[in-house]
Amino acid sequence: MSLFRCQLRSEDVVRAYIDRIREVNPLINAVVEERFGAAIEEARKADVLIGETQPLWLIKNYPLLGVPFTVKESCALRGAPITGGSLARKGVRATVDGEAVAHLRAAGCIPLLVSNTPEYCLNWESYNHVTGRTLNPYDNRRTAGGSSGGEGALLGAGASLFGVGSDVAGSIRVPAHFNGIFGHKPTAGAVSIHGHFPMSTDEKFARLLTVGPMARYAKDLPTLLHIMAGPNASRLRLDESVHTKDIRILYAEDMGFNLGHVPVDDDIKMALYRAVQYFKGHGLVTERAEFERMADGMELAFSVLQSLTDVPSIFHNPDNPKANPNLLVELARCAIGQSQYSLAGIMFYVIFGLKNFFAAGRLELYQEQAATLRKQMIDTLGTDGVFLFPTYPTAALRHYESFGHIMGVGYTMLFNAFGLPATHVPLGFDRNGLPIGIQVVAAPYQDRLGLCIARELEAAFGGWRAPK
C-alpha cells in the first residue's frame, strides 16, 4: 500500500515490513544491519502519541508519524554501520543522522535498517567484501544494480515502503530501473548530502552527488522529496498545482550513434513510444528532441567527473592514513581473490584517481561542449517541458556484466553532470519478464513536472508490480 493509504497502527505496519524483510532477505542479501527492536519501540511510541492526541491535526509537525522506511548504508543513520562496503572501515558507525535522514525522522518516520552498496558506491552492481552481493528479486541471476542496489532490491521485493538513496552517476535510477520501482534524483543541491559517505571536499562534487527518495508508488515521491529537502523545499514549489495537459513532452529513444554505446533494447524503445503515444493521445504536445552532441553524452558527462580535484580513495585506511597500496599488486591480488578491495573499486580508482581517461586538450573541449549542451537542454525544457529518455539501455544485467556495459550509464550520468532532476518510471516488463522503464528529466528546480508525469504514467501503465 502507499504511505497515504495506511490506516493500521504503526506497530502493525512496522511488524509487517519486518516479517517481509526476514522472508526475502535470505534470497536477495540486501540488508547490511537491521534495527528491528528499536523500530518496534518507536512504532509503539508513535501509536501512543496518536492515541493521546485529539484532534489529530495537533500532530501536524509529524506528517509521516509511524511510517517505516529503509536507508542506503552510505546515507548516515545514527548508530548504524557506514562502512561504504570497505573492509578497512568495518566497524565504523554513524554518530549522527545524515541531514536528509534526519528530516525524515523529524517527520515521524521510523528507519528499519541500512542496505547494501558496492564498495565506496563505485559500481552499478551492489557487491562488496563486507556484506557480499545483492541479488535482483525478479531474477537472482541478475544484479539489483548500484549503488543503491540494496534499496532497489528491498523495494522491488515489496520489503520496504520507501527508501533513501544517493546518486552520483545513476545510482538511484539504475537500481530503480532494474527492480521495477520509482526513483527520483533531485535537482543538484535541493537535498543536502551532509552525512553521506564517501564525500569529497571539491565543491563540484555537491553538484554531482544527490540524495533522493526511492519508492514503490509515484504518489509518495513529492511528499518524501519535500520533507527530505528541508529548508530548500520552497525552491522546489512542490505544493503548487501542476496540470499534466500543460506539460510539453520531448523524447529520444537513444543517445545517437557512437561506436562505444550499448544499443537500447527494442522493448525499452517500445515502452518509451507507448508513453509518448499515451500523452499524444491525451492532447499533450509531443516532440522528438534534437540536442547537439548527445551522441557524445558519456564522454561529456565523464569530462565533468574528471574535473574533480578530490576523489575519495578506496585505499584510505582510517587506522593507517599513510598507507598507499601498490595498484598493480592489488590488481594481481584481486585476480586470485586475495585483495581486500573489490575489482570494481580498483578499476574506478584507476579511471578517477589517475585522471588519464582524456588528454588535457580533449578534456577541456568536452567540458566546453558539456556546458553548451546543458544550456541547450535547460533552455529547451524551460518551465513546462520534460524529456522522456531511457534510464539504461537494457533490463537488469547478469552479475559481472556491468564491466562490459559501462557506457550504458551515460544515460543517467549525463544528468548528474548537468544537475538536472530525473525520475525513473517503471513501464512493465520485457520479453524475459524483467522490469523496464524510462526516466523523466526536467530543468533545474522543475522536479514537480517530472513527478507529475511519473504519476500519470503510473496510472496508465501500472507502476510497480511484485515479483512472481
From TrEMBL:
GO CC terms: endomembrane system
Gene3D superfamilies, A to Z: Amidase signature (AS) domain
Domain Amidase: start-end pairs: 12-448
Alphabetized Pfam families for the sequence: Amidase (PF01425)
Family per record: Belongs to the amidase family.
Protein name per UniProt: Amidase domain-containing protein
UniProt source species: Anopheles christyi
